[in-house]
Amino acid sequence: MKIIKYALSILFCNAYRLLRFIPNNDPIMGVMLPYARQDKWWHAMVFAFLTMASFDFIVMRVGIWTWVTALTYASLGLLFHFVYKRMKKVRLRHYLGSGAIGVLIFDFVTGVLFGPMMFGMSFTQALVGQIPFTIMHLVTVSGFIMILTPLLDRAVIGNPALEDSVVLNKLKLAVRA
Questions:
Q1: Which of the four, 4, 20, 30, 68, has the lowest number of CB atoms within 10 Å?
Q2: pTM (predicted TM-score)
Q3: Domain total of the chain
Q4: Residues 119-146: what's their mean pLDDT?
């Protein structure tokens, strides 16, 4: 298992999101994509769901919105897993394209489709209001994918030295010393 890697990734994403530099400045997509490529079909789904739900729990805003966003992100994790499994080699450009498609789907579902139902606005207001938000989301996700995704892909997720059993053995030895 890769519980330690997932837990650290969730902690990183939530800690970064708590900084709230600008709206939609979150690293979840950039972190989820390598998991979607390298792990079992359900791992990226669980990562995305737990990251979204745990953040809402931390900021004490759990509700319907938690389910909408967490399930939408989890669905994207599943989608990209099956997209990447069909590819022989996944390159940065594939991650960037997936990130853009993922943002467009996520923002359309959460902002344009569910926004009017949850916040009492018209579909047109939601669509027009979503445009600058989505542009900012595309920029920040692209930045995370260019910086964070290759690092995770090579140095963390595929690193056998960071497997749970290895890390736990090192911790046991450190405690004994």
A1: 20
A2: 0.89
A3: 1
A4: 94
